């Protein structure tokens, strides 16, 4: 599959100043930027910085960032699903996973996450993909935001909706283990029905159990 990546950007005005929302950003450019110390949702900042550089170097990998001058204060990642997850079992070249989205506390509520997703979908190549995200409540910053799981889920859904992702049902055991967990997806305009059917089969792999 040919991996097309077209750079897009916008300037977001916030009460703390302007941020540049841009990408996909190359591994080389990411390496030259500072990674904010408050980006700690998934692992230590230096480790996560290395991880997004590695993702950007993958043929299909895409990293979009929110940048305050030369400091990354938010990012979103797109790559093929983990080989151990059910979403990789169909070996679909046109299925990408939104693996992580994170914004430092200072800029939460400023529309950074929504605009990271909007800029991501400005690239016409995204119409050739099914984009999925698996949301698990144990990854959510309930303590920092002081929201309960359902309030956070509502905020998260609104953010994903800004990128065109919608709720999809699934029988995935991990997602089904808590009612706040969910699968969301965006099906590109040029996706054929055959790929939609493949995706449906991945969503419901345990039908024989009922």
Automatic annotation (TrEMBL):
Extract the InterPro entries matched here: AcuA, Acyl_CoA_acyltransferase, GNAT_dom
Q: Does the keyword Transmembrane apply?
A: no
Q: What PROSITE patterns is this protein classified in?
A: GNAT
What is the uppermost EC class here?
A: transferase
**Tell me, what is one Gene Ontology molecular-function annotation carried by this entry?**
acyltransferase activity
- Which is one Pfam family of this protein? Acetyltransf_1
Keyword Transferase in annotation: yes
List, alphabetically, the SUPFAM superfamilies matched: Acyl-CoA N-acyltransferases (Nat)
Keywords in UniProt for this one?
Answer: Acyltransferase, Transferase
Show the coiled coil region(s): none
Residues annotated as domain N-acetyltransferase: 23-189
UniProt cross-references to Gene3D superfamilies, sorted A to Z: 3.40.630.30
**EC number per UniProt:** 2.3.1.-
Q: What is this protein called?
A: GNAT family N-acetyltransferase
Q: Which organism is it from?
A: Chungangia koreensis
């Amino acid at each position: 599959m040919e991996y097309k990546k077209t750079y897009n950007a916008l300037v977001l005005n916030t009460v703390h100043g302007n941020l540049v929302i841009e990408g996909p950003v190359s591994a080389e450019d990411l390496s030259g930027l500072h990674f904010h110390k408050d980006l700690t949702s998934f692992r230590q900042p230096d480790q996560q910085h290395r991880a997004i550089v590695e993702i950007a170097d993958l043929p299909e990998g895409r990293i979009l960032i929110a940048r305050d001058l030369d400091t990354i204060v938010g990012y979103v990642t797109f790559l093929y699903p983990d080989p151990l997850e059910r979403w990789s079992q169909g070996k679909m070249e046109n299925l990408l996973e939104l693996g992580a989205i994170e914004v430092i506390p200072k800029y939460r509520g400023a529309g950074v996450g929504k605009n990271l997703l909007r800029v991501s979908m400005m690239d016409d190549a995204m119409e050739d993909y099914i984009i999925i995200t698996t949301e698990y409540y144990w990854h959510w910053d309930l303590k920092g935001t002081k929201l309960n799981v359902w309030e956070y889920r509502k905020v998260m859904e609104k953010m994903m909706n800004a990128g065109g992702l919608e709720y999809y049902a699934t029988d995935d055991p991990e997602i089904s283990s808590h009612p706040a967990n969910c699968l969301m997806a965006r099906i590109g305009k040029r996706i054929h029905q055959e790929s939609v059917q493949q995706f449906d089969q991945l969503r419901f792999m345990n039908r024989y159990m009922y």
